[in-house]
């Protein structure tokens, strides 16, 4: 049994690795072995990891086992002392692509940035995957040293002003401060050329700004988090002086800032063929909080909005969302996609029970007012604390279970507690008491049907009534 | 509870969902049963033999709760009666429905009883006399629908219990019993 020098990785409920602060996933490769080949001196310290999902992040290489009892290990990029370049040979055309790198080991036999010993590890890519792109990204992240926070923040802004200089010095006729002597036709021509150059420059700068913004995205998230903590500390100290209204707006602000926060969105670019799988797992982690707030069931459209808002610029299409949700059946996640008979799709927790909702509806529908004039979707929405469209779905499912029945009239679409099974042809419905109206006193029922008629009866009556 | 003429309406006549065709099977079956019973009861007490779907029919709307049946649900409830043999469509378009609160066989039995009660075992009587005559007064035969009566007579004729013969004018048909 080889000793394992790699630190294990915590997993989320859906089987995605828990990322470090500011860590971003950059590349996914499936069917990857991570092992130590040949007769390396410290080979016995390195585990032999067979067939898993390799994720390259800005901070680590994470290997996640394919087997159901998912185990995961990581190689912090900080501990990598060298990445060997890919050797192109005839042999490598036929064998699985390999990427080799050197890891430092501490004397205790764990990976460490300042280890004295070292071991050469190999990534064997057995599945389909762009080895060269992976290697390039691997180099980039390793060199990027994102784990050294201070360096990365100051480093990302360095590319901005550098391109201005050559533009200014391109024309030999210009003086150092940019002014030019304009004489005759050549002066006009020169003026024209200057204009072209300036538009060219501003275009260039405009696009550079875009790139700069993207590279600053991480900093923006950090800023948002900083503001949030400030707000939190501020609200506790000023609680006595600020009014309720201000508190409310602060909470709202906090919520807005919190929803900014998927720091490492799974993108098609980074995940490739594994995109939907990874998206599905990330979504499962994401929906927990909104689901709790919505009482265990939430409309797919609402989740689409919330999820995309949290992703910021890396928006997903509705189709991607649907695919991601339908993949949940294959994973062991605590949420399911459910389609109502009407075609409305919702996400609900596996523990969510219809019985609870139906018993609430039952109570609502047997109140004296509801017995008299029924309940509408918006009445139910108020009681259940859900959107009216959602409430209507609940009412319909209660109807299909025989708890309610419908009344369609010019006044609208309303639901009544189902009394059909209580009536019989001799009109002695109140003697037979079973099923849904157990909790309704029979004399109340008599009264309700009689009073209901009187209340509404002002407009017309039968001869002899 | 309100009345319709001398007919006492049931409590559930004021239950609004009663006037909306229910989509759920169990509920719908029970609703249809209640409607079938109500229609037959009402027609029997009011001596109504034909319901025209497109015309006003007192049972099909309840102004007290401002509800009325749609054409579709009227058709559904009457069709349920038809499938049970308690009604018949009089045309293919389902515009008129003949209500048989007694089946034809039962009407035939009533007719025979009528003949025995009035000593007509070998006698002759006109169809008009059966429908409006003094003898039928107070019996269910009084005011019977012509179509139903003819059907009952035909049934008895096939069994050899009577003979229907033409009179001098077209609408003057006679019946000779031979019991």
Automatic annotation (TrEMBL), chain A:
The UniProt GO MF terms for this protein read:
phosphatidylinositol-3-phosphate binding; ubiquitin binding
Q: Localized where?
A: Cytoplasm; Endosome
Query: Which keywords does this chain's UniProt record carry?
Result: Coiled coil, Cytoplasm, Endosome, Protein transport, Transport
Chief place of localization? cytoplasm
Q: Where is the GLUE N-terminal domain?
A: 9-154
Q: Name one GO cellular component term.
A: ESCRT II complex
Instruction: Give the GO biological process terms.
Output: protein transport to vacuole involved in ubiquitin-dependent protein catabolic process via the multivesicular body sorting pathway
Q: Name one Pfam family in it.
A: Vps36_ESCRT-II
Answer whether the UniProt record assigns the keyword Coiled coil to this protein.
yes
Q: Does the keyword section mention Coiled coil?
A: yes
The UniProt function text for this chain reads: Component of the ESCRT-II complex (endosomal sorting complex required for transport II), which is required for multivesicular body (MVB) formation and sorting of endosomal cargo proteins into MVBs.
Self-association and partners: Component of the endosomal sorting complex required for transport II (ESCRT-II).
Say which family it is in.
Answer: Belongs to the VPS36 family.
The protein's name in its UniProt record: Vacuolar protein-sorting-associated protein 36
TrEMBL record, chain B:
Give GO terms for biological process. macroautophagy; protein transport to vacuole involved in ubiquitin-dependent protein catabolic process via the multivesicular body sorting pathway
Q: Does the keyword Glycoprotein apply?
A: no
Q: Which GO terms describe its molecular function?
A: protein homodimerization activity; structural molecule activity
Q: Name one Pfam family in it.
A: ESCRT-II
**Coiled-coil regions, chain positions:** none
Keywords annotated in UniProt: Protein transport, Transport
- Tagged with keyword Transport: yes
What GO cellular-component annotations does this UniProt entry give?
A: ESCRT II complex
Give the record's family classification: Belongs to the VPS25 family.
In Swiss-Prot or TrEMBL terms, this protein is called ESCRT-II complex subunit VPS25
Organism whose genome encodes this protein: Lupinus luteus
